Amino acid sequence: MLVTPIHYDLSFEPIFSNFTFEGKEAIDVRIAKPTNTITLHAAELKIKKCLIVSSGKSISAQTKLDEKKETLTIKLPTKIAKSAKIHIEYTGVLNDRLVGFYRSQYKDKSGKTKYIATTQFEAADARRAFPCWDEPAAKAAYDISIITEPHHTAISNTNQILKKKIGKKTLYKFAKTPIMSTYLVYLGVGEFEYLTTKSGKITMRIVTTKGNSKKGKFALDLCKKLVKSYEDYFGIKYPLPKLDLIAVPDFASGAMENWGAITFRETILLFDEKTSSTQTKQFIAEVVSHELAHQWFGNLVTMKWWNDLWLNESFATFMATKFVDKFYPEWKLWDQFLEDTMNTAMGLDALHSSHPIDVKVNSPSEIREIFDAISYDKGGCVLKMLESFVTEKNFRAGLRVYLKKFSYKNAEGNDLWDEIGKSSKMPVRSMVNSWLKQTGFPLVEAKKQDSKLVLSQKRFVLEQKGSQKGLWEIPLTITHDGKAINKILKKKQESLIIPSNEILVNPGRNGFYRVKYSQDILYDLKELILQKSISHIDRWAIQNDLFALCVSGDGKARDYLEIATSYENEDDYLTQSNVSGNLYALYHRTIEEQYNPEIKQITHQYFRKMFDKLGWDAQKDEPHTNALLRSYVIGALGKLDDEEILCEANSRFRQYLQNPSSLNPDIQDAVFSLVAWSGDHNTYQKLLHLYNKAESQEQKTRFLGALSSFKDPKLLLKTLDFSQSKNVRSQNMHIPIIRVSGNQYGKKILWPWLKKNWKGLRIKVGVGSPLLNRMVSSISAVADNSMQGEIKQFFQKNPTPGTEMTLSQTLERIRIHHQFIKRLRAEFA
Ligand code: BES
Ligand code: ZN
To answer: Pfam family of this protein, just one (predicted)?
Structure first.
């Protein structure tokens, strides 16, 4: 860059009466070569004044905004050199699209509408708040001031150093920030309430709207413990004197790691002992941990460019689990990681339309679209695989050097691999790059030939078309008779001499690949599953891979059902939830098929067995995972039309209406949904009323889900229309859409409704919102093969930037489903 920023002096004054703000900035820049034009980023701003001071002279400058490129060009009459200070005065919009500097609305206790102003700058929206070099590598320091109305307070990244009355308003000044990227700057203004604590020298606060700060206790206590733990692990102190966790009523994603001022959706920060579920508690912990990991990995050391976004996100994903697990080992988060992270990643990465982790991106819409299961989940799995390959100790040693070396700077993936390579003295760079630079992941086939074990690799895809490219450096572990062999499989095929029978590939599932065993090996493994003489993770993995092979056409559903019988006496959380999930998927996918009753019966039986162990009510001191499993099992049984469950759900609902605290929050979701499932128009009115009067957002989303669980398509349409009303926040609009897509009775109505409403929907959530991708994905659950052309055409006529890749993934999923059904029909005929 010709001109680079060193320091920003920023002052903001939000004007709530017309949802605008006044901005004033002074940027110190360094100039590499004499120039008379300076170009920086700006969007939706009106420039009032621009003045440049260089070599003691003050020059007034011409400015030109390019709305399309989102740039501001400053033209000067003469060239300037070395350094300058750019002074700009401008106005901007406090928009309602949840990006840039935006407004969020809520009602106070007396029902009065209130606003807060808050920011979301990642990936490329700081330019909507102040002209800047809006790229992660253009790091600078910031001095920020905010002018507010007297009843408001202001928050930014650092601690407040001045509060002063000026006229009727209040001026807040904040301490100079460390050198950092624009996407991490934060501004917040509103009638906030705080829950405060101290941890060593750091002041930690939960920030909420009035009346809610008490619900921040769980997050605040955990935050304190996690920060200490991260400081120890990284060997670097948290560098700011304060850390705020802020609950924002309207928030596009889940949470955002602004340095020292982390923002969250309310449902991901606020925990209410009386009404919140165990699932919510766990989620809060994981997300707090994730955003705290970013304070080092991302904020202190930042990627050079967004192609390495995955490094930020996958690292935080991996660390989030690692650190919450230290405090809550009984939550079994590493088991859950296999299901939520590894399976999610493999589901996407088994598509031809997936993408490499390390991917070229340029425009803001391209950048937004890679915040997906590849960047978060596959990346997280690759890091976990790397850690187990080089050992925890070497991984951490390399990481520490990397963080020290690049503090307050930018880095690339290779910088990290090289440090971990040095600490472990292992070929890390080439191993890792084989997982980063190519799309997909391998299927390892294991076959016995005499006393040899033949291992081969090929790309695992769900849609079969021709032979697949791809060769990975796979860190393999094989156990036989309990002994472990480690090696790197680099070739297409290799054989090992293994005399014994009980062979297990990828034990513990540290490697990001699936395994296909030959029949004889599988035969032995079945016995081990029944006896439970292999670990729960290995029991889980064997059938998990077999099910994936069914979907890809490399295995038979009947064989899967057969092996599922070996899992009837499972008591492990992970295994039970996966087996039941696979059975349910099989049932749900074949609902319109003749042979469905047979599958339904098997599925029902499996869930019933699980339920018999769990029951309706939490047992004293039961495992955490029981609470997670219970609502899922009850919900599924009801949808499998289990009369007893439906009856009890309705009876518990009647009790709930009398006395809300009679219903455990962990089963509320399931109960409300089943009441809808078996309910009519009157039930609808009741649930709608409950939605409208629900006080917390967590409660509201439960009822919104229930409103999407009716059988009557007319009621489902009503819910979809309701999702467009002012009663549903734009951040939650995707909930009914996704829930209706998963409801078999919504199959016919969703796509026509989406088509009719797409224009309005796009405006409501804002083009570029990640929620649009979720809605596009939902189409794969309701469309059949014959609709592909129509869907493609629709999006050609209604282009939705940032969803292009998601659309091809959705179409591919439709084809995969179609092929799967075709094979099932042949099998079950
Ligand atoms: N940096 C992201 C937030 C973000 C997401 C910004 C997408 C811009 C676009 C943050 O660290 C994050 O990953 N948030 C997650 C939370 C997750 C851990 C559940 C999110 O918002 O989904
Ligand atoms: Zn993140």
So the answer is: ERAP1_C
The C-alpha atoms of residue 705 and residue 639 are separated, in whole angstroms, by 14
- Domain range summary for the chain, segments of one domain joined by +: 1-190, 301-436, 442-543, 710-829
592 marked as binding residue: no
When pLDDT is cut at 50, 70 and 90, the band that residue 365 belongs to is: confident
The angle, 0 to 180 degrees and rounded to 10, between the axes of the packed helices 596-614 and 557-564 is: 20
* Distance set, CA 117 to CA 188, 248, 250, 268 (Å): 6, 10, 10, 19
Atom of ligand 1 nearest to the CA of 283: 19
Domain 442-543 identical in fold to domain 710-829: no
**What is the C-alpha separation between 347 and 322, in angstroms, rounded?**
23
Q: 1-190 maps to which CATH number?
A: 2.60.40.1730
Does any ligand 1 atom lie closer than 6 A to the CB of residue 257?
Answer: yes
C-beta separation of 98 from 54 below 8 A: no
CA dist 9 and 524 (Å) reads 69
Residue with CA at minimum distance from ligand 1 atom 15: 254
The predicted structure's pLDDT at residue 615 = 98
Residue 1 pLDDT: 79
Instruction: Report H helices in 353-463.
Output: 364-369, 373, 379-390, 392-405, 413-424, 428-436
Let me know if 790 is a catalytic residue: no
The pLDDT value recorded for residue 421 is 97
Catalytic residue among 44, 257, 266, 291: 291
Query: Does ligand 1 have an atom closer than 6 angstroms to the CB of 291?
Result: yes
Q: What's the confidence (pLDDT) of residue 502?
A: 83
Q: Which fold has domain 442-543?
A: Immunoglobulin-like (2.60.40)
Superfamily of domain 301-436 in the CATH hierarchy: Neutral Protease Domain 2 (1.10.390.10)
In CATH, the number for domain 710-829 is 1.25.50.20
Q: Does the beta carbon of 253 lie inside 6 Å of ligand 1? A: yes
Q: What pLDDT, on a 0 to 100 scale, did the predictor assign at position 364?
A: 86
The single-letter DSSP state of residue 375 is I
CA of 135 to the centre of ligand 2 (A): 17
CA of 730 to the centre of ligand 1 (A): 17
- Ligand 1, atom 20, lies closest to the CA of 254
pLDDT tens-digit map of 85-144: 999 999 999 999 999 999 999 999 999 999 999 999 999 999 999 999 999 999 999 999
Ligand 1 centroid to 727 CA: how many Å? 25
Residues near 679 by Cβ (< 8 Å), separated by ≥ 6?
A: 687, 710
Give the DSSP letter string of 705-720: HHTT--S-HHHHHHHH
pLDDT at 769: 84
**Average model confidence (pLDDT) across the chain:** 96
C-alpha span between 114 and 804 (Å, rounded): 37
pTM of the model: 0.97
Structure-block tokens of residue 70: 């989102």
